[in-house]
Amino acid sequence: MRVFKYAVIRLAVFFVVWGACMLLGLGWIFSTIAAAVIALAAGYLFFNDLRTGAGRDVASAWEGRGKAERFKSEQADADAEDSYTEGRYFDPGAEDTR
Predict the structure, then answer these.
(1) Does residue 52 sit within a domain?
(2) In a domain? residue 98
(3) What is the longest distance spanned by two Cα atoms in the chain?
(4) If 0-12 CB within 10 Å is exposed, 13-18 middle and 19+ buried, where does residue 63 land?
(5) Which of 27, 30, 34, 39 has the greatest number of C-beta atoms within 10 Å?
(6) Mean pLDDT of all residues belonging to the chain
(7) Where is this region: Disordered (predicted)?
(8) DSSP string of the chain, one letter each residue
(9) pLDDT given at position 58
(10) 90 inside domain
């Protein structure tokens, strides 16, 4: 949720600054560049807690730590698959006990 909030705030700042620059008649290229720089700076300076929290949320989702625990059916499926494939295929990491 923090990622969504941070994105909405950055987009809002961007479009407010972009609109103000366009109303001043600065041109769309300069308005876009100025709005992007100001939105980046505002997000970095004023929304630091939200930015770092959003970064942690993305990192934990990327690493798979988003789920606290597996569902029971998911764990049962994984156990059934492991028991079926155990010993059927060559595992290059396992020691040869022959």
Answers:
(1) yes
(2) no
(3) 81
(4) exposed
(5) 39
(6) 84
(7) 70-98
(8) -HHHHHHHHHHHHHHHHHHHHHHTT--HHHHHHHHHHHHHHHHHHH-HHHHHHHHHHHHHHHHTTT-SS--HHHHHHHHHHHHHHTTTS--TTS----
(9) 86
(10) no
Q: Cα separation of 93 and 63, whole Å?
A: 24
Would you say 51 and 44 are in contact if contact means Cβ atoms under 8 Å apart? yes
CB–CB of 2/52 below 8 Å?
no
> Which range marks the domain in which residue 60 is found?
2-85
HEC readout, 38-64? HHHHHHHHHCHHHHHHHHHHHHHHHHC
Q: Is residue 93 part of a domain?
A: no
The total number of structural domains that make up the chain: 1
> Which are the contacts of 48, defined by CB distance < 8 A and separation ≥ 6?
none
